[in-house]
């Protein structure tokens, strides 16, 4: 699959002033993507740079204003062999969003998703998300392919991005909620007046066999602060599913005060993900406790590796912290990409996640 893209992106105020001759509030960059150059180059010689993203481009890149200054018209285009997409991020966890409402089959294959997600030879993303027709009375269905082509049950940051994408597709403004069918069950995101998205993530799954983990239950049917031997060290772990499996650790048996910034995540993460105790592999969260309402985590995601944020992981972290008597039911969880507000409600046992989702750029790519 060749990668050649036309990209449309929001402008910062200085860049908009440099293009004051057009009424549109974004411009279009058209160029084949190539891996060699390090920076974005402008044939027009404006000298401006956009901090929102980086692409590799030849010096022959053209800048042109679109025919219509509206994302809606861009998303409505139907061209054979061309995929129109919008790239979003939730705290740096970034996704390629695809309007798949006209078919129940993803418009991109897992192999194509791998190429599109490549950060050197493709668009670059942690996954590809499809907005698909709803089933069983839901508004929409969400499917996602990870950057390695695998398909997870759900993604917390991804569901926030999907909610904002759906609102754009529907041209809706203000507070709005959607019912979305996922591999993890029914998820209900609600766009708030401030633009953040609050998501009812449902109830955590704690039964060991349903997470799933082969670690023997040590509290009722759950695995809480149990020993897991990884690469010669004995780690204390709590296993939680948010519709996808998570292994949460606050440290080893020798050291309970984990300093997450000191971890070599690329080395230790895969050893947790592929551990024999996790038959479906696992996401792994390494957590540092600042106070009962303030936690910090780094994550190794199943199928994506180290990412800047993981919404389901932040939910699992708060559940594990409560079960281990380390934190309250409502916490701010700091991730490398920024904070999420997580609440495990005593009233209905549901987890509520609140955080941002932002557009990075609009683009088209031949498949």
From TrEMBL:
Query: What PROSITE patterns does its record include?
Result: DAP_EPIMERASE
**Which GO terms label this protein's molecular function in UniProt?**
diaminopimelate epimerase activity
Q: Which UniProt keywords apply?
A: Amino-acid biosynthesis, Isomerase, Lysine biosynthesis
Listed GO CC annotations: chloroplast; cytosol
Q: Its Enzyme Commission number? A: 5.1.1.7
The opening ranks of the lineage are: Eukaryota, Viridiplantae, Streptophyta, Embryophyta, Tracheophyta
Q: What is this protein called?
A: diaminopimelate epimerase
Keyword match Iron-sulfur? no
The reaction(s) annotated as catalysed by this protein in its Swiss-Prot or TrEMBL entry are:
(2S,6S)-2,6-diaminopimelate = meso-2,6-diaminopimelate
Q: In which pathway does it act?
A: Amino-acid biosynthesis; L-lysine biosynthesis via DAP pathway; DL-2,6-diaminopimelate from LL-2,6-diaminopimelate: step 1/1
């Amino acid at each position: 699959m060749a990668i050649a893209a036309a990209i449309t992106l929001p402008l910062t105020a200085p860049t908009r002033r440099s293009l004051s001759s057009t009424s549109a509030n974004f411009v279009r960059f058209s160029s084949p993507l190539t891996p060699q150059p390090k920076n974005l180059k402008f044939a027009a010689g404006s000298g401006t740079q956009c901090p929102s993203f980086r692409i590799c481009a030849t010096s022959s890149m053209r800048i042109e204003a679109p025919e219509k200054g509206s994302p809606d018209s861009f998303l409505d285009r139907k061209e054979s062999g061309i995929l129109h997409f919008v790239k979003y991020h939730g705290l740096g966890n970034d996704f390629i969003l695809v309007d798949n409402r006209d078919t129940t089959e993803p418009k991109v294959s897992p192999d194509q998703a791998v190429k599109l997600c490549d950060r050197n030879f493709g668009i670059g993303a942690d996954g590809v998300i499809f907005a698909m027709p709803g089933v069983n009375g839901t508004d929409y269905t969400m499917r996602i392919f990870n950057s390695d082509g695998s398909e997870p049950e759900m993604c917390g940051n991804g569901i926030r991005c999907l909610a904002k994408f759906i609102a754009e597709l529907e041209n809706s403004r203000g507070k709005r909620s959607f019912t979305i069918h996922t591999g993890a069950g029914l998820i209900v995101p609600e766009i708030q007046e401030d633009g953040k998205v609050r998501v009812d993530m449902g109830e955590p799954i704690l039964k060991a066999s349903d997470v799933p983990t082969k670690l023997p239950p040590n509290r009722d049917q759950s695995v809480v602060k149990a020993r897991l031997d990884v690469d010669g060290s004995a780690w204390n772990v709590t296993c939680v599913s948010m519709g996808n499996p998570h292994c949460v650790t606050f440290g080893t048996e020798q050291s309970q005060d984990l300093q997450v910034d000191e971890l070599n995540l690329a080395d230790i993460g895969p050893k947790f993900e592929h551990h024999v105790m996790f038959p479906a592999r696992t996401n792994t969260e390494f957590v540092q406790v600042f106070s009962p309402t303030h936690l910090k985590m780094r994550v190794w995601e199943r199928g994506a590796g180290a990412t800047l944020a993981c919404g389901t992981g932040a939910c699992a972290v708060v559940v594990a912290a409560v079960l281990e008597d380390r934190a309250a039911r409502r916490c701010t969880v700091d991730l490398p990409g920024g904070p999420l507000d997580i609440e495990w409600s005593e009233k209905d046992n549901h987890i509520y996640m609140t955080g941002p989702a932002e557009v990075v750029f609009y683009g088209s790519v031949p498949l």
